[in-house]
Amino acid sequence: xxxxxxxxxxxxxxxxxxxxxxxxxxxxxxxxxxxxxxxxxxxxxxxxxxxxxxxxxxxxxxxxxxxxxxxxxxxxxxxxxxxxxxxxxxxxxxxxxxxxxxxxxxxxxxxxxxxxxxxxxxxxxxxxxxxxxxxxxxxxxxxxxxxxxxxxxxxxx
Length: 157
Prior knowledge:
The protein is α+β, with helices and mostly antiparallel strands. It is built from 6 helices and 4 strands. A 4-stranded antiparallel beta sheet has the order 2-3-1-4. The relative contact order is 0.20.
């Protein structure tokens, strides 16, 4: 009787795992309307521009002034995100040999346009940050994550 229970349990488990694997293999239906709205190519990708923020040359000792500039930096990121211009932004958590402090992914393939947008950042203008600009190719669906970010955020920095 015990062997029968074990056999039935294992058979059920194998059946569930097989069903789960079959579900994984199901092809998601291509959505031309969504692909077009996101500017996707035939691979579901598109061109973006990455801006790598580095430490700037300015050394601002006044903590209130620096705090004001960093609040402006965060507000500018929010403004650019609301406008659909910036789709990823964030600091690096560890020091690195390139002195990268953070990054933006801009929803443009134009380096010139990305540079105009990064120059709206008060911390960049004050010299706290400098930057390097690179063309990048990634998933056209990348901007979709932003609409869910507020749903998982309890506090803003």
